[in-house]
Amino acid sequence: MKNLGDMMKQVQAMQSRMAEMQAKLEQATVVGQSGGGLVKVTLSGKGVMTKLDLDPSLLKPEEKEILEDLILAAHSDAKAKAEAMMAAEMQSVTGGLPLPPGFKLPF
């Protein structure tokens, strides 16, 4: 039974670290950009877009499609950064705990 008690302590510690990580991610931000910095998208660590910054030179009716593409590219860049940040945080929380392939926390 000693092993079960130790395992329960480890699970409780991991739950506590998960809650801390989630709070940290809510405060963190990442910035993605495209068009050489003409379009910038800011996302929270949870992936919520909080800011969009457009260079005034892009605000021309004939540039509409280019602007749309640049916004999508900047959002994708920011999302990839947010996911990488979350993966790094998860690795520190799980402490190298071997999880099955494709298993993601939090559920």
Short structural description:
This protein has about 110 residues and is an alpha+beta fold. The protein is built from two helices and three strands; from the N terminus they run H-E-E-E-H.
Question: What is the ordering of alpha helices and beta strands?
Answer: HEEEH
Determine Rg (CA atoms, Å). 19 Å
- Please report which band the strand proportion falls in: under 5%, 5-15%, 15-25%, 25-35%, 35-45% or over 45%: 15-25%
- Helix percentage range: 40-55%
CA-based shape = rod-shaped
Largest sheet: 3 strands, antiparallel
> Taking all residues together, what is the mean pLDDT?
83
- In the predicted model, the low-confidence regions spanning at least 5 consecutive residues are none
User: How many β-strands, per DSSP?
Assistant: 3
What is the helix tally?
2
Straight-line distance between termini: 28 Å
Computed structural class: alpha+beta
Order of strands, widest sheet: 1-2-3
SSE blueprint:
Blueprint lengths: L1 H26 L1 E6 L4 E6 L4 E6 L9 H31 L13
Antiparallel strand pairs: 1-2, 2-3
Helix pairs in contact: 1-2
Defining key terms:
107 residues, alpha+beta, three-stranded antiparallel β-sheet, 3 strands, 53% helix
